[in-house]
Structure formats: structure tokens, C-alpha cells
Amino acid sequence: MSEITKKSSKTAALIQEAATNMFATYGFDGTIMDELAAKTGVNKASIYYHFGSKQGLYEACMTTLFSGVANQVLAAIAPQDSVFDQLSAFIAAFSQAAYKSPNMPAVLMREMASSGKNMPKSARQQMQRLLFGLKTILEEGERKGLLKPIQPLTVHMMIVGSLSLYIVSEPLRRGIADAPQADISVAEMTEEVSNLIQNGLKVTEK
Amino acid sequence: MSEITKKSSKTAALIQEAATNMFATYGFDGTIMDELAAKTGVNKASIYYHFGSKQGLYEACMTTLFSGVANQVLAAIAPQDSVFDQLSAFIAAFSQAAYKSPNMPAVLMREMASSGKNMPKSARQQMQRLLFGLKTILEEGERKGLLKPIQPLTVHMMIVGSLSLYIVSEPLRRGIADAPQADISVAEMTEEVSNLIQNGLKVTEK
DNA sequence: TCTTTTTTTAACTAATTAGTTAAACTGTTT
DNA sequence: AAACAGTTTAACTAATTAGTTAAAAAAAGA
Q1: What residues in A contact B193, CB-CB < 8 Å?
Q2: CA distance, residue A165 to nearest chain B CA (Å)
Q3: A6-64 is classed in which CATH architecture?
Q4: I want to staple A196 with a disulfide (CB 3.0 to 4.6 A). Which of A206, B9, B167, B200 is the partner?
Q5: For chain C, which bases have at least one atom within 7 A of a protein Cβ?
């Protein structure tokens, strides 16, 4: 073990995991370092030893939380597939990534509401890469005469906005006892979003 | 003047307006009462006199912020119109309401990320009424054989999620200087969302 | 105009919060 | 085994935060 010991990496990871959950649930200001220490069983000074400050901890959490999102989504897209399959794969992969890590959409929404001022550059870049990947699909579809022209940002917002809102609202929807039938699973939601977007963009015969 | 004086209603309104902006920007925990007092030029004790507590102030702000949203949207729908026009009017009215009051989508997103735990019942009811109004349109469209079957919640999430995310991300998008052409106006976004959803739901000839 | 009620104020309070210190403990290297 | 480096700890600190008090000021009512 050279720079980082086993113990230290375990402690740091434990802190980071708990902190990510708290930041997603309570926001930056609502996450209290004493509570985080209590939650992890780690002494508060250890947190400062490993991460330097609350802000430093936040940035580490965000960097990890958003790292790989774009990779996962872009990796799910096979360029030789039809643009419809590419689009479908994009939506499904984003949905899966967000569902597997609900802290990500929650933080994304908080950061957007705060004008992204605490969002590290690396996280922003991940979002940019998503938009660019989607743009590539849409442009190809338009070029082949299969998809209608549309602003990539519109489609991006519809995918990210709807699925993020759906996923983070799960606890709230579960609490609404008067509308049990109104709720749907993430798989169903994803498929419906995907179908609607594909049908909405598909060039139809006139 | 009986229960509430002119001066008191002016002061309370001034506090509430400034507080709403701050809650939307910084969240509940990030909004500091001393700063709110400084921003309004009102003594902090006056805030407590009028609203009782920070939580009481928050609830007053939220109640006002969300009041009328459903009314505005539902009022924009003419039941004798085609379901496409109804849908279009729904989307346009929500977009306008959110754009005119960007604090609303910002708070909505924050509250969703926090499982809505600080969201007053009245605000929740407004959202429920929106979903119900949309459900009515979709069911009518399906009954008439004009719209494909789809879960109202899916469409609701797509409208609210995409437009809210778009509107609150405006400051962030403006800050991204390397993609000026990638941005679009709210009118264009609204129209594209509306067209895509309508085309995506439209029953086509086989 | 006087009395009552409402509102605002300056100053204060107790609790909370992010962060710090230096010693003790643990792990690594020679 | 000793020296060095890394990590954790208990206790502490200064600043901040939500909230309070009682008097002064303003507004309303008779």
C-alpha cells in the first residue's frame, strides 16, 4: 500500500457513500456534518482529514455520482443499429442508470434549481456528452429521412426531465394512497416514454 | 381596516415575495432568515410576527406559489375543442405558468428530490388536479379513437419534467458559452414538446 | 384626543454548525 | 524493533442560525 491504505480507502468510501445519500436527500445545506459522522460511525475530524471541507466532500461525491453516466448510456448504443433502436437504447440506458442510482437524478434536479453552482465541471461534462450523443442519433435519423427535424435539447430535456422526475417522485407517489392504480413501474414508464418519443419523431408517409 | 392593515399586508407580501425567491434559489435550509431580513429591509422579528416560524413562512410561500396553477391550466382548456387542441393548450398553459413564475418549477424539483416532505397539501392537490385534467383529455382521445392508450402519469411527467427542467436550467445554459446555437427559446421548446407528444400519441392509419 | 391594538424594533439567547487541534493510535518502511 | 507516515480521536472554537423579549412606534377605533 503506497499512497492510500486499505483502511483509508474503506473509510473514505464509507463516508462518501453516506454523504452522497444525504446530499441527494437533504441537499448541500441540509446535510449536517455531525449527522453524517453519526451515520457512518466515523469521527467528524476524519471526514475533514479525508475530504478537506464540506465543499470538497460534495465535489468528490458529485464527481463519482456522475462519472460514467455518459459512458454507460453511450456504450449501450450500437451505431450500426437503426436510429430507432439507438434512440430506444439511449432512453433505456439512461433510465437504468438513473433508477440504479436515484441519487443522481435527485442531485441533478437540485443542482438545476440552484443554477448548477455546486456542480463540478466533470459532472456537467457528462451531461454535455449525453446531449451530444443524442444529437448524433437525431442528426443521423434526419439525414436518412427517418426522423423529423427537432432540437436535440428538446428531446434531451424530455428524456432526462421525465425520467428523473418520475424516479425521484417514487417515495411521494407511494405515499399517495388515493391513487394506487395511477402509478406505473419504471419499466413501463421507460417503454412508454421511448415509444412516444419514437412515434413522435418518426417520419410518416403522407 | 379590520384584521389586517394596509401596512401589514404590504410588509407580509414583501417578505413573502423575497422569501419565495430565496426558497426557490437556495432551498429551505439554504435560506437564512437574517439574509431575508436584510434583503427586504424588514426586521427579522417582524418576519416571525407575521409568519410564526421559518416553516410557517415556507408553507405560506408554497401555498401561494402553487395556488392557481391548476386553475390557469385547466381554464385554458376548452372541452369543445379537439383533444389535440386541448392537449396543446394544456402544454402551452403549463409552460406559460412555469415560465412566468420560474420559482414554481424550481421548488417543485427540489421538493420532489426531498420526497415532497415540506410541500403543503394544497400544493400537492394542485399537481393532482393537473394530472386528473390531463387524464380526462387522454381518455377522451382514446375513447374517440384519436389517441393511443397511454398512462396519464407518463404524459404528465413528460410535460412537467421536461418544461420544468428546461426553465430552471436557463441560467446554467446561458452560462455555457460553447453551445450558443444549442439553446432554444421557451416558445420553441414548448411547441416542439407539444408537437412531439401529439404526434407520438396520434392514432395513425395502418 | 385618548385608548386600544397592531406592528416594528434593537438587543439578546440558546442551540447548532463547519471546522480545528494536538495527541493517540495504526500502518508502513527500513 | 525503531522510525516514519498515515489515520483517528476527544475536546474544543468561533461563527452562524432560528427564534425571543419587551419596549417603542404606528395604526385603528371610539
Answers
A1: 154, 157-158
A2: 6
A3: Orthogonal Bundle (1.10)
A4: B200
A5: 6-11, 16-22, 26-29
pLDDT single digits (tens) A8-50: 789 999 999 999 999 999 999 999 999 999 999 999 999 999 9
DSSP A38: H
Distance A34 CA to D11 C1' (A): 14
Which value does ipTM take for this structure? 0.91
Cβ-based contacts of A188 with chain B (< 8 Å) = 151
Residue B52 Cα distances to A160, B59, B118, angstroms: 39, 11, 16
B66-113 residue pLDDT tens: 998 999 999 999 999 999 999 999 999 999 999 999 999 999 999 999
Q: How far apart are CA B194 and CA B85, in angstroms?
A: 10
Interface test with B, best of A162, A188, A195 (most B CBs within 10 A): A162
Whether A34 CB is under 7 Å from strand C: yes
CATH value of B6-65 in 1.10.10.60, 3.30.479.30, 3.40.225.10, 1.10.760.10: 1.10.10.60
Give the list of residues 6+ apart from residue A152 with CB closer than 8 angstroms, or none: A131, A134, A135, A138, A139, B182
Instruction: Enumerate residues 6+ apart whose C-beta is below 8 A from A156.
Output: A130, A131, A134
Domain ranges of chain B: 6-65, 67-201
Query: Mutate which of B172, B178, B186, B195 to test chain A, going by most A C-beta atoms within 10 A?
Result: B172
**Identity of the residue in A160, A161, A197 whose CB atom sits nearest the CB atom of B196:** A197
Is it true that A6-64 and A67-201 share their CATH fold?
A: no
The residue among A203, A155, A147 whose CA lies nearest residue B161 is A155
pLDDT over 90 (residue A153): yes
Q: Is A119 helix (H, G, I), strand (E, B) or coil?
A: coil
CATH classification (class only), B67-201? mainly alpha
Residues of A in contact with B191 (CB under 8 A): none
Q: Which chain B residue has the Cα nearest residue A103?
A: B113
**Crossing angle between the packed helical segments B152-168 and B103-113, to the nearest 10 degrees:** 120
| CA dihedral (A197, B186, B152, B61) positive or negative | positive
Cβ distance A192 to B151 under 8 Å? yes
